[in-house]
Design a protein that fits this description.
The chain is mainly beta. It is built from no helices and eleven strands. Strand 7 and strand 8 form a beta hairpin. It starts with a strand and ends with a strand. About 25% of the residues are buried.
């Protein structure tokens, strides 16, 4: 079965840093990218960062300059380094894995990031 597993979420103080990881397995089709979305309570899901299969990256405006996405050689795992965290960064962060053959990407279960003093 397909597994998309996130880790690294937790409680962090404002201005602090946190690193999220995502690993995908069991996906038979070619992966076109891997990335992160987040959703805060009462808010719509928004793009955090995305890395395409050729290594290009895209960031949401609210995190640009503070977050960095990276991937391993096989493009089956990614990390999100989050720095200068703010209260507004509090959300459930979900790993997404689009493929070339599917309209709907695979999703992880999500990991909670809470920024609180």
């Amino acid at each position: 079965q397909v597994h998309v597993v996130e880790s690294g979420g937790g409680l962090v103080q404002p201005g602090g840093s946190l690193r999220l990881s995502c690993a995908a397995s069991g996906i038979a089709d070619s992966i076109s990218g891997m990335g992160w979305y987040r959703q805060a309570p009462g808010s719509q899901r928004e793009l955090v960062a995305m890395m395409t299969s050729d290594g290009r990256t895209r960031y949401g405006d609210s995190v640009k300059g503070r977050f960095t996405i990276s991937g391993d050689n096989a493009k089956s795992a990614i990390s999100l380094q989050m720095s200068s965290l703010e209260f507004a960064d509090t959300a459930v962060y979900s790993c997404t894995v689009p493929t070339y053959s599917s309209l709907v990407p695979y999703w992880g279960q999500g990991t909670q990031v809470t920024v609180s003093s």
